[in-house]
Amino acid sequence: MKRKQKKHSARKKTRKILRSSRRVQLKKQNTIENPEKLWEVANNHLLSDNPLGALPYLSKLVDFDPNDGILLFNYGACLAQTGDFQAATIPLEKTREIGTE
């Protein structure tokens, strides 16, 4: 009887670890490795008038594609809205150089 209980409890632990691992993978897919999801979250913050909340997501997006003028513009505008005007000039100047198309 004890053997069955041990095997059953070991299986439960294994299932629990696998479920936890899947959740971590989904979180990574939905944030760090998925630019579309990053933009969705950043845009939701921007639409909610929360530029400070959008900054980390826009920063990651700019890291993914440093030559995307639209991302650079939004990142620079977001920095300006939070009061960091000096930092905002860098992405805004780059946006002016490369354009938004």
CATH C-level class of the largest domain? Mainly Alpha
State the fourth-level CATH superfamily of the largest domain: Tetratricopeptide repeat domain
β-strand number = 0
Q: Helical stretch count?
A: 5
Can you tag this structure with a few keywords?
2 domains; 82% helix; mainly alpha; Serine Threonine Protein Phosphatase 5, Tetratricopeptide repeat; 101 residues
Describe the overall structure:
There is one protein chain. The chain has 101 residues and is mainly alpha-helical. It folds into two domains: 1-30; 35-101, Alpha Horseshoe (Serine Threonine Protein Phosphatase 5, Tetratricopeptide repeat), CATH 1.25.40. Helix content is 82%, strand content 0%. The protein is built from five helices and no strands. The chain has helices at 2-30, 35-47, 51-64, 69-81, 85-98. Helix 2 (35-47) runs antiparallel to helix 3 and helix 3 packs antiparallel against helix 4. The longest helix has 29 residues, at 2-30. The radius of gyration is 21 Å and the shape is elongated. It starts with a helix and ends with a helix. The mean pLDDT is 82.
How do you describe this structure in short?
By secondary structure, the protein is mainly α. The chain is built from 5 helices and no strands.
